[in-house]
Design brief:
Blueprint (H helix, E strand, L loop, with lengths): L2 H10 L9 E2 L11 E2 L8 E2 L1 H16 L3 H4 L7 H13 L6 E3 L3 H12 L8 E5 L4 H13 L4 H4 E4 L4 H8 L3 E7 L11 H10 L3 E5 L11 H4 L3 E4 L14 E4 L46 H17 L1 H19 L5 E3 L12 E5 L2 H12 L1 E2 L1 E3 L3 E4 L8 H14 L2
Parallel strand pairs: 2-13, 5-6, 5-7, 7-8, 8-9
Antiparallel strand pairs: 1-3, 4-10, 9-10, 11-12, 12-15, 14-15
Helix pairs in contact: 1-14, 2-11, 4-11, 5-6, 8-9, 12-14
């Protein structure tokens, strides 16, 4: 494990790092910047974000309410600027995509439309180690419908889901899974699970918090009924950033589909006639309930422009190279066990390791070695070499530090 080999890989990689386009925190170790592996929790800040925010603040100061029409990026149709790049990011049609709210709010809005328990078909199927917020959301939805969450929310190991749907699918109303598991980094087979759910008569939705900006997606072609994702992890749009949402085109013009309505979901051509009854448009915009938060959307616009410029195919290829290199360095290291699948097709840019006293180890790595990781108690450290800004040298630094600390 040689440092010069890592540096040579960085110099030769066909997609040079865009690290210089990000603010990388300073390091307390012997290197000037940290090796940042926590982009699966909060991505780094693009340098262009500050200027984008200042532009909106200056337009607000200069124009007041006229900024809705005359700002550099007019506020009234602002969310429309994000529609195309968001759709390209997740493999959707523009009309199927909207940037709005936060992830769990969007999941609740989707379940208001797509979780319609009736008769024996009332279960919600989630993975057994789903992200807690997803578990809270689906349990509260079951309770909202007067059901028992302990009975009607079914938790299932991911490798058992397709068989369960074939066996018990007639009792399942909704399948809602994470596209990439937050704990292990495992990529689920989204098209296969979606097809299995539909074959059993279920509606199928996906939480893509750890998938958007991490793996290539083809939501329209794969055909789930809906999906939602956040923008503060791999999409680098800031803490609590505005999220994204997908509704498949087959549902967009269905007048019988219930939805929770609000100001920005009505027809923009008649919005300011102030009519008391909403006129939903046949796009994902119909699920919007509030006008866009411009200061929160500016960082999302910056991020999506960057992903459009680089492209998910190039990012995924580099992700596989970086993660494969990190995995090779971790092989044989004593005192840890990698729990992420070894097959590159079944993992994103994350390797999760099980190790004793994970929290203490992560603190030492950060404070003494300048290696920033993410901990999930009681025993898991997650390392996410995000291809936009992580380097082979970062991977070398992480494993070199681990090898010293695990002796």
């Amino acid at each position: 494990m040689r440092e010069d080999e890592a540096l040579a890989l960085d110099a030769a990689d066909p997609l040079p790092t865009l690290r210089s386009e990000f603010h990388v925190p300073p390091s307390a170790g012997r290197f000037p910047e940290v090796a940042y592996f926590a982009g699966n929790s909060l991505g780094l800040q693009p340098r262009a974000t500050r200027a984008a925010l200042l532009t909106e603040l200056d337009d607000w100061a200069r124009l007041g309410v006229a900024g809705h029409f005359e700002a550099t990026h007019p506020w009234l149709p602002y969310h429309e600027e994000l529609r195309g790049p968001a759709a390209r990011l997740v493999g959707a049609r523009p009309e199927e995509t909207v940037v709005m709210n936060s992830l769990t709010v969007n999941l609740h809005l989707m379940m208001a439309s797509f979780y319609r328990p009736a008769g024996d078909r009332r279960r919600i199927l989630i993975e057994d180690n789903a992200f807690p917020s997803d578990s809270y959301a689906v349990r509260s939805q079951a309770a909202f419908h007067g059901l028992d969450p302990d009975q009607d929310v079914v938790r299932m190991p991911v490798d058992s889901i397709v068989d369960y749907l074939a066996r018990e699918g007639e009792r399942v109303a909704l399948v809602l899974l994470g596209g990439v598991n937050y704990l292990t980094g495992e990529v689920l087979d989204i098209p296969a699970v979606t097809a299995a759910g539909h074959a059993a008569g279920c509606l199928v939705g996906w939480d893509l918090a750890h998938a958007a900006g991490n793996i290539p997606l083809q939501l329209h072609d794969w055909g789930p009924d809906f999906a939602a994702w956040c923008s503060y992890k791999y999409l680098n749009s800031g803490p609590g950033a505005v999220a994204g949402c997908f509704v498949h085109s087959r549902h967009l013009a269905d007048p019988a589909l219930p939805r929770l309505a609000g100001w920005w979901g009505t027809n923009p051509a008649t919005r300011f006639l102030m009519r008391p009854v909403a006129e939903p448009v046949p796009t994902a915009d119909a699920w919007q309930v509030s006008n866009p938060p411009i200061l929160a959307m500016a960082p999302v616009r910056v991020s999506l422009e960057m992903f459009d410029r680089v492209g998910m195919a190039a990012l995924r290829a580099k992700s596989e190279r970086l993660t494969g290199y990190l995995a090779s360095l971790l092989e044989g290291l004593p005192g840890l066990r990698v729990i992420t699948p070894t097959d590159p097709a079944r993992r994103g840019c994350q390797l999760s390791i099980r190790v004793s006293e994970a929290g203490k180890l992560a603190e030492v790595l950060r404070e003494e070695d300048g290696v920033v990781t993410d901990v999930r108690e009681p025993d898991t450290i997650r390392l996410a070499p995000a291809p936009l800004y992580s380097t082979y040298h970062d991977c070398w630094r992480a494993v070199e530090a681990l090898s010293r600390r695990l002796r």
